[in-house]
Amino acid sequence: MLLYPLFPLWAYVKLVICMWLVLPMFNGAAYIYENYVRQYVKKISSSSSNYPEEYKKVIHMMTFDARKAVERYIDRYGPDSFERVIRAAEREARKH
Asked: pLDDT means per 10 residues in the chain (96 residues)?
């Protein structure tokens, strides 16, 4: 037996839930990500990397997409090239 025909407001409930997830004023999707999803993403990404601790700290402060891009860059060009990029970014930041 289906439960939703017995609940005539089901369409409105779905609308409210979707609005809560999507609209920036409610920030529902970010809430779910921060409180439920992120802990699993951190466990998966921290167990798969074998970078030094200083790299791990920097990488974990980034968004997931940025983290993956940095990991690909380090894998492709090596940690020394990543250090050069960081130093160049620090020099540019000091200029401004």
From this structure: 69 90 90 83 59 70 77 85 85 82
